[in-house]
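Record passed on underneath.
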Amino acid sequence: MSDIVLYSTNVFLKPLIQSRYQADEHYVWCSEDFDSSKLSAYAYGSLVPPSSNPADIYRELQRDVQRKDSHSAKITAQKATLIRLATEWHANGKISLADKDDIIYMVNNASLDHWRPLVYIIPRAVVESRLQVVPVAKRAGFGNEYIIPDLKRCEFDIIEI
């Protein structure tokens, strides 16, 4: 086991949706380091590129929300992901058609403030047995990336920087 905590950056709307429509169970991608760009060039963690680095994701979302960028590529991608998830959850019988429609409405009508970034701080020991290493071919770079498919809300803290 390496680091004590794992980090994930998500938009404010995501935990709200997962709390209400997924029994407060969260699917997250995470990293061992908050900011891979601050690591030694020889550290394995430095190989996590900006698109998977929690600090870079946070900064990009924060900048776009603060500047009221309604054409933000990062926010557009988050919207697409949440709509895709709602559609999958409905197709898999996890939510009703009305719930799917509500999620899509929320995503399409959320204010920019609902897209502000949050950092999840996840104690590694709590999730170690469920932590999945993302195969290198599916990562943005060679640095480690992880998935926790069933993170419970009581297993992580949320902060805003």
Q: What stands out?
A: The mean pLDDT is 95. Residues 5-159 form one domain.
